Amino acid sequence: MSKFSVIGKRVHNVDGPEKVTGAAKYAFDMTLPNMLYGKILRSPHPHAKILNIDTSKAEKLIGVKAVLTAKDTLGRKVGIWRRFPELCDEEILCSTKVHYIGDPVATVAAVDEDTAEEALDLIDVEYEQLPAVFDPMEAIKEGAPQVHDGVEFNINVTRHIEWGDVDEAFKRCDHIREDRFYCSSQAHMCMEPHNTVASFGFDGKLTVWSSTQSSYYTQVLLAGMLGLREGDVRVIKPHVGGGWGGKVELDATQFCASLLSMKLCRPVKIVFNREEEFTATKRRTPMYYTVRLGAKRDGTLLAKEVRVITEGGAYTCLGATTLYVTGFFSSFPYKYPNYRYDGYRVYTNTEPTSAMRGFGAPQATFVGESQLDMMAEDLGIDPMAIRRKNGMTPNYEIPGQAYIQSCGLHECLEKVEEEIKRQGKLSPNHGIGVACYSFVSGGIFNWFDTPYAFSSAVVRINIDGKVDLYTGACDIGQGSNTVLSMICAEELGVHLEDIRIHAADTGTCPPDLGAWASRETLMNGNAVKAAAADAKRQLLELAAAKLGVNIVYDLDIKDRWIHIVGRPERGLSYYDIVREAIRGKDGEMVIGRGHYTPRRKGMVSPAYSFGVQAVEVEVDPETGKVKLLTATTAHDSGTVINPLACDGQLEGAISMAGGYGFCEDQPMDNGKILNPSIGDYKVIRSLDMPKTKILVVDTYEPEGPFGAKEAGEGLTNPTAGAIANAIYNAVGVRITDLPITPEKVLNALKEKKKKEST
Amino acid sequence: MIGNFEYFAPKTLQEALTFLDKYGDKCKVIAGGQSLLILMRQGLVAPEYLISIKGISSLNYIRSDLKEGLRIGALTPHRVVEKSAIIRSQFAVLAEMENKLASIQTRNWGTFGGNLCHGDPAGDPAPVLIALSASAKVASLKGERSIALEGFFLDYFETALQPGELLTEILVPPMPARTGAAYTKFNVIETDMATVGVAVSITLSPNRDTCESARIALGASAPVPIRAKHAENVLKGKKITDDLLEEAGKIASSEAKPISDIHASESYRRELAKVLVKRVGKEALARAIKA
Amino acid sequence: MKKELRLTVNGQSYELYVEPKTLLVEVIRNQLGLTGTKRGCESGVCGACTVILNRVAVKSCSVLALEANGGEVETIEGLAKGSELHPLQKAFLDYGAFQCGFCTSGMLMSAKALLDEAPNPTEEQIKEGIDGNICRCTGYNSIVRAITHVAKGQI
After folding, report:
1. Which pLDDT tens digit goes with each residue over A91-108?
2. Is residue B57 less than 8 Å (CB to CB) from chain C?
3. Which string of DSSP letters, residue by residue, matches A136-155?
4. Please, which of A49, A309, A743, C116 could form a disulfide with B268 given CB 3.0 to 4.6 Å?
5. Is the model's pTM score more than 0.95?
6. Pick among B99, B104, B118, B190 to test the C interface (most C CBs inside 10 A)
């Protein structure tokens, strides 16, 4: 018997009926009367001075209403790390210099897309090409071209994390390994491209509909760049076709559409085509890893030293956070008494690298889990045993860094190990690899410098008991609308269908930082729970008075029945109390407010998810082709609010994380991405998807609403490492740079054969 | 962005040929358009006139004749070829190849002939048809001619079709007795374009002891689909063993002229050709033994 | 110069005038306002634009509208009958076979075309049936389960 009425049940996604009937409207589908279409002209050079832009011919083209460049802006720079102005380095419309192939230099609004595109060809831009640099290892060298003025060695951001005494600890180790790894880029490839409809009215107010992960960030950053009051900018998030970190920051569709609309006082819509999606948005941060790991003979890990150089691309964006997260999760999920991390984010003249599902942790986990298997083999210890020996446990603290409360890692290890044993002996060229992982449930740092609580919610109860829930949380497909409605219903003691959620409209909903770093369930969930509790309290106050209950008794609501806890037979109808409460408030609706901002507890994050994944592969030794057969995942996300959605995250992550491991890549030539189309950019399809098995681990996270913590991002971390370990288990070759292509595997097999024959 | 063009939709072959003759190199033919529209969208192809031949129902057929063999009308959709009972029983390799070609949506609308006229060296049908000794029937106002498939492709995306000519039919001669044919392509994603594709047809001698003849065709291994004739000669007249197939693979690999691109290096493609010729040859042999 | 286009879409007849270069997906979304069908790429690969044309699944971004002249088109908007969802739609809800929803319309039309053609498909055939539809969210297995459920119910 579940103690919950709503939570934990397999319910339909509340947006489901709209989505399966084609009725769900995305910004992509929006048109407004009198609307114009915008396009963006981009730099063909990776690094160049803009000498002159002549827009006169384009302006004369019939159907063109405006052609704007940097001179039509306030000349400001945007960045998401608002607390650090030197990291706000993106103009969007470049004024004097372009920094990567695809950097915008002009924008056009016309009566239709074809005309706008034609107009782009009529804009003459005079460039003076500058020396460019593409590899961060080159960019940090003396004499390398300077991507941004005044940034020594192109080092954009550095991060340092340290505890214990690593140098001393290495002296006590029985065995030390030093290894290098390369983690590649990855494109978000959301099915819905970036797009925005912006409408600036004669009243001086801007309304924007955009495919965004954070309507709040969009509002604030747009206001800043356009010189508008935040309150005069309203950002509405329709249904969004995927985000994964690519739609958190202010993008060119939002900025240019708004700029054009302000100039023309007409709605303007800008939609990126797929080539722009691949080349002129943001992408996963490529990283060069050097790791030193030291252990005792019995497998106890004593020291880990990590040095990372990341390819930053042309602008900072969220790459500054990624630099930290990768270093932080290089210390997870094991107990390292001594740890040191130094990270360097290096500017390059390539597409900016920023945040993508996992936020630097998939890279850290690929490296960490690969090296741990290598260490285990050196010591002659079973890979599962070494993980069990060092894995984090509940209530573990890294002083000054992280405080972990719930931690189901060991239960996950147990379950996965059982499953592996059940597999028995594997066929030839089959292998199983394991990877452990962890992730944050949102972060605590306020680099955005918001004065608001990180999450807020308002609950409003109508006369008929129906509840309107207002939240800034952004459902981008991960299902926050459903999860938050469930939390609200559970707390308030009503049914899921009693809740109607209004989300991510800055004009009507209280602020929330948005959907990234897997924060919505825990952070906004806590805000929603608090708001529902606030509303409930107002009903219970009245009910207590009406029931005349003894002071030692508590009241609660379950299944629309307000009753004494433990004595459900004594109670009152929720509907009756709602009516009376409203009358008692002089006709005001019952309104509850809640908010949540994580405090120092947990330091980096209020809570961490944990898990273990085992992947079985089959390697074709003659071609190097790797087939993913099964992926078994045990995931600890605390109380599972919405099991259907949680399973969906588990399986979905495998396709994206598996892709990172073996087929997704963005090869470049002198800063030009060579495969900017779906088809040339390879992703897993239904015939490539392995069988998936989900193992449930039950824990309770005190910091999370009803004990819940994250599920969507942590699951992206393990797969690449598990694949690498599985390939080694199958055919004895270790690939240390992503993606693991058949060619790399075959070359490694040939090397191995050569070595064995000598 | 697709440029503007004038559009004609002839209902008969004669009408279509008349348009082609009239507009010459100012026009392009569209059948299913599954390849052409992408090129037009990229601006690589921008005809003034587009002649849509999909409505010519007389070119959509599959006929089989014991003497003449298999005749596939050029406008037969891939999916129809894939599901045809005749083809599944008599030329199974064609149906198998179609099953892995792009996606069902593409196969529903794209045509067999259109694929060949596109002239992509990585295309799936061409190596199979070459291995099966197929020929193409081509028509113009001046008459008809036949071109062997192995001579149909001249260069990347360039076929032997002359201005005013239209591919009307593919003729696949009846498979000789004791013949087996197979095709496979290498890719990382299951129904992706071939990194390398190999088709092999083997005919055994009357006592089924030795190989009477072999045809080995490689796709995505050169500017056009090619026959690996030297590799074929390795097998001809001999008893086919695993070692011999390995040898044939090595030779075929050296006959290939693959490129290096973002998906694979030249040397890896050669390696794939070697391995696939061996494997597909083995499968073809097994089928020949059963035939 | 515009040419006449006659189409039946979800049972309703239309007489339109279109430029020859107009794609079927543009007619469906822009002229008929049926925005359930999406567009995710320009290379005819992602499958988000899948509709059923003359009883077979096609990518409407890779079909010139005039090529469909006189044809019958079924889009996602025609799947439900009044307020009654199609069994596939119900199954997608039950199995959580969608997340962001952008590929869902195309996915459902591919699934319907598959079951119309092969009411008792194998798991392999189901996977083949949706292999032309990219989903970035679900990992496909829940979609396969949903379609399998409907197929089993149809026997």
Report:
1. 999 999 999 999 999 999
2. no
3. HHHHTSTTPPPSSTT-GGGE
4. A743
5. yes
6. B104
